[in-house]
Each structure stands twice: as structure tokens, then as C-alpha cells.
Specification:
Layout: H1 17-23, H2 26-31, H3 58-67, H4 80-83, E1 100-101, E2 107-108, E3 126-129, E4 164-167, H5 179-188, H6 197-206, H7 210-217, H8 219-223, H9 225-242, H10 252-257, H11 265-275, E5 304-305, H12 335-338, E6 346-347, H13 369-378, H14 428-438
Helix pairs in contact: 3-9, 5-9, 6-9, 11-14, 13-14
Domain Cytochrome c: 58-204, 265-442
Protein name: Cytochrome-c peroxidase
Main location: other
Length: 444
């Protein structure tokens, strides 16, 4: 199996594809521009390096069976695939903000369901310099609460390099570093799959795939139930790493990068607005770079932002006015003090396949890309569109983030840098065009 399928941590630049094409190719130097041509074609096509495709190993085949096995759950009715649906790019196709789980499938999960596609390329969680040319995890910064944070700009990503930022990890708060850790989270959560190590082990011992797993795991697993359980979870990780369905890289955008596809006029406009630091500025976080590795871009920098998403009152936990989900700073018991600079921050998700999702943000508060783009453009210009208004007419902006942490909000990067009375960074047409571009990121 090639290195990609093991522990490869690829290096991707934070420079946007637009900037890369302007400055990074010989053709760009000859023509002066590698912007999409008027007919939507890519004048500077690149050759992408995708993971090799091989038949699944025996371990990965077992992992696939476990992934689809509802009997590992506390209810006996919920498998990993119940929420991470293969037919919807390993995300949920439900329009509910969070899922129902627990022993009787009547408990709300805490957050919306992220996709499992492309998860194998996430670096470990860390807090350190915002490196504009690498996604490799930096060293942990000891005094994270005392660091400073500056702006991020799609045209000048290097300006953010002095920032100390949380980055990497899986889940909305980065609390898992490996696919195995990620699998255990929902598996043992009482409000999700509601299982126990004993129940999973019992199922693995009596499942149709048990004998093969024991044979592959060796004598130690036959003598130790905990080791057999660890091998079962490892098998699920192998399934995610080996099966090309988790990382297809075959969207229209990938075809455009390689010169095989053309943007429509609206998709072309959306691509330009996505990369424009004065408009969408999306590529400052949702990196669309092709670096020297030639790996396809993931449309995330694996970092975290506090965007002030509205409180979602469809979640029962939010009926308690003193209950807050603060993301990164809740990943450890003393986080609201030790990591106070990052309270309210959640991961920047990949935008690949984003157009197939039904809910958005960590709490599932938005139900469409139109809602999301409106929020980005109008959060501070028309706050009453998104936040509740008190009986006295006061808009309760940022109502899901306690006042002491609101300095963490992004108010400096476009499109969040607009003040009341100013024009939004993105016009309605810009937003429509960006959504058209985002639809080119759907895997086929």
C-alpha cells in the first residue's frame, strides 16, 4: 500500500489556487494570467496526484462490515453508516440539525454530523503558528491564552503567519487525532450509538467476520478481548483509508484543474468571488491550492474560527440559557481558562461535497447554502435576520457565545469586516455565483 494509505501528512500551501496560478507556473509568466478563461476553461492545467486504487485488504473488508453493522450499537439499530451515509458522501442526508441516538433512538446528539470523506488527511490537533505553506502540525504552544491573532486574507495568506491558531484534529473541536479515536467517540456516546466496549466486543466475537478478524489479528487478540476490540476499530480505519469512496477527487472542479472541464459563466464568477479577498475571501480558510505535492486541494486549512453562529433553539440543550457549546475550549476540563482565546471556535470543514449537505455549522442552525452565504455577507449588517430580538427591540447578536469570549469572533476578515451602514462584501449575485461554484466540488 502506498504511503498515502498509511500516515502521510501532505503539505498544502495556504496560498489560494488563484494566487498560485498567477505566480506559480511558467505559462502564467508568459501570458500574465491563469485566471479561468472567458469560455470557462483552465489555461494552466495541472496534473493531480490521487491515491492509488487497489482491492480492499482483508482487514479493510472486515472494517466495512463493522462500519455497516447496527449490532455494535446500544440500540442494535444504529450503525456508523446510519449517520455517515455512503450514498451521501459519508455525511447525513437528514434535514434535522442533529441526529437521534441513544439506547432507544430518542436522544439528541450534541452537534451536526460531519462528513467522513477526506478525513484521513487531517493532521493531529495542535496550537501553533499559522504556517502559510504547510498543513503539518506545529508544536503545541504552552501559553495559548496569551497569544495574539491577526487577520486572514485570500490574496496575502502569509500575513497570518504570526498568528497562533488551533489546527488539525477530527470532530468539530479537534478532540480526536486518529480515525480510531474518531470512531470511538460516537460509538460510546450515550446520546449517539450508546454502546460499551463489552457490547462491541461481544458482537465482534460472534459476528460472521469474527474468525477472519482473529486470524488477521494474531494470537494476542485471541487471548485478549481488549486487543480484539482494538483490531476491530483499526479495521474500520483501514476501510476509510483504503476505500476510494472516501476520497474520490473526481468532482467537476478536479476536472477543471486538469483541463478536462469548463466552468459555466456563473461558476466562473463564483470561483473568482470565492478567491477575491474583498468579496468572499473564502479561500483564506477553505484553501483551494495545488501545491508541489500535486495532491488535490481539500478546501480547508484544518484551522478553527469563531463565526458567531446563531443559537439553535431546535436543540434541547440550548433551552438551558446557561448551557453553551464553546468548541475548542471545551475539549479539555480547564479549557475555558487555559484555551479561552479559542472559546467559540469550531473547525473549518472541507467544502468538498458541501452542496449535498442539508444542515450547516456545528449546531445545524442553517438549512441551505443560501442561508450560509447570507449569514457571511450580512451577519453584522442585518443581524436581526439571524439573531433574536428582545421585547425592547435589542438584537441579541452572537447569542450562542458568552460576552467574555466575543473578542474571539472574526470581525476583521472579509466578508465579516463590514460595519452597519456599509455595503456587504458580497452582492446577492456574488453569493449566487459562489454557490454555483461550490456545486462543482461534488464528487461523482
Amino acid at each position: 500500500m502506498p504511503d498515502f494509505h498509511h500516515r502521510m501528512r501532505p503539505v498544502l500551501g495556504r496560498i489560494t489556487l488563484l494566487a498560485f496560478l498567477w505566480t506559480g507556473s511558467a505559462l502564467a509568466q508568459q501570458t500574465g494570467s491563469c485566471l479561468p478563461a472567458e469560455d470557462g476553461s483552465n489555461p494552466c492545467p495541472v496534473s493531480l496526484r490521487r491515491p492509488d486504487v487497489h482491492p480492499l485488504s482483508q482487514m479493510a473488508e472486515i472494517g466495512k462490515q463493522i462500519f455497516h453493522d447496527p449490532l455494535i450499537s446500544g440500540s442494535g439499530r444504529l450503525s456508523c453508516a446510519s449517520c455517515h451515509e455512503p450514498g451521501n458522501h459519508y455525511a447525513s442526508s437528514a434535514a434535522t440539525p442533529v441526529f437521534l441516538g441513544g439506547a432507544h433512538l430518542d436522544l439528541q446528539g450534541r452537534r451536526s454530523i460531519p462528513t467522513l470523506t477526506y478525513a484521513e488527511r487531517s493532521p493531529n490537533f495542535s496550537i501553533g503558528p499559522d504556517n502559510p505553506t504547510s498543513e503539518a502540525a506545529p508544536a503545541i504552544v504552552a501559553n495559548a491564552a496569551a497569544t495574539q491573532r491577526g487577520g486572514k486574507n485570500a490574496a496575502n495568506p502569509g500575513a497570518a503567519s504570526a498568528n497562533m491558531v488551533p489546527q488539525g484534529g477530527l470532530f468539530w473541536d479537534g478532540r480526536a487525532d486518529t480515525l480510531q479515536e474518531q470512531a470511538l467517540g460516537p460509538l460510546y456516546d450515550p446520546a449517539e450509538m450508546a454502546s460499551t466496549p463489552e457490547k462491541v466486543t461481544d458482537r465482534v466475537i460472534h459476528a460472521p467476520y469474527s474468525d477472519t478478524l482473529k486470524q488477521l489479528a494474531g494470537a494476542g487478540a485471541n487471548a485478549s478481548s481488549s486487543l480484539l476490540l482494538a483490531e476491530a476499530i483499526f479495521a474500520m480505519a483501514r476501510y476509510q483509508i483504503e476505500d476510494p469512496a472516501f476520497h474520490r477527487y473526481n468532482s467537476k472542479f478536479d476536472g477543471w484543474l486538469e483541463g478536462h472541464e469548463k466552468f459555466s459563466p456563473l461558476e466562473r464568477e463564483g470561483y473568482l468571488a470565492f478567491n477575491d479577498p474583498a468579496k468572499g475571501n473564502c479561500a483564506a480558510c477553505h484553501v483551494d491550492t495545488v501545491a508541489s505535492t500535486r495532491l488535490p486541494p481539500l478546501f480547508t486549512d484544518h484551522q478553527y474560527e469563531a463565526l458567531g453562529a446563531p443559537r439553535n433553539m431546535a436543540l434541547k440543550a440550548n433551552h438551558n440559557p446557561s448551557s453553551y457549546d464553546l468548541g475548542v475550549c471545551d475539549r479539555q476540563p480547564d479549557g475555558r481558562t487555559a484555551l479561552s482565546l479559542y472559546c467559540g471556535m469550531f473547525t473549518t470543514p472541507t467544502l468538498r461535497n458541501v452542496a449535498t449537505r442539508k444542515v450547516f455549522f456545528h449546531n445545524g442552525v442553517f438549512r441551505s447554502l443560501e442561508d450560509v452565504l447570507d449569514f457571511y455577507a450580512l451577519r453584522d449588517l442585518e443581524p436581526k435576520r439571524f439573531y433574536p430580538v428582545s421585547k425592547t427591540g435589542h438584537v441579541e447578536a452572537y447569542n450562542d457565545l458568552p460576552a467574555q469570549y466575543r473578542a474571539n469572533l472574526d470581525t476583521t476578515d472579509a466578508p465579516f469586516d463590514r460595519k452597519p451602514g456599509e455595503q456587504p462584501a458580497m452582492t446577492p449575485h456574488d453569493r449566487e455565483a459562489i454557490i454555483a461554484f461550490l456545486k462543482t466540488l461534488t464528487d461523482r
